Model the fold of this input.
Amino acid sequence: MTTIFKKIIERDISAEILYEDDDIICIHDKFPQAPIHILIITKKIIPNIQELKVEDMHLLPKIFAKAQELASQFGVQDGYRILTNNGPSAGQTVLHLHFHLLGGKVLGGKGG
Ligand code: 5GP
Done:
């Protein structure tokens, strides 16, 4: 099984890569919903947060620490949102765990 994000990780398709290590990759979203719209993606293909197993939960603090860093780097540390969509009915379109970091404007309602 592959995903569009796996293809980015493997450099089969291009993306603006902001950060990468053995566990995560951070890219600009191709279709930004805010002036700052970064995706923090696990390298391992985990479909979504509901499928995250205990053995992979160590990735979460790493993801949130990187979100803090990126928020500061992009100057939105005083106002940003981190979200992950779980399942198509929640708006998930890529079944590969990722967190959206959104900022740079006044963000609207939470429910969509
Ligand atoms: P989801 O809808 O699953 O929560 O989020 C998937 C995100 O991936 C969307 O915000 C979408 O714009 C972004 N996306 C989809 N395809 C690509 C791509 O090829 N490159 C990049 N950089 N982002 C993508």
Notes: The chain is about 20% helix and 25% strand. Residues 16 and 27 are 5 Å apart (CA to CA).
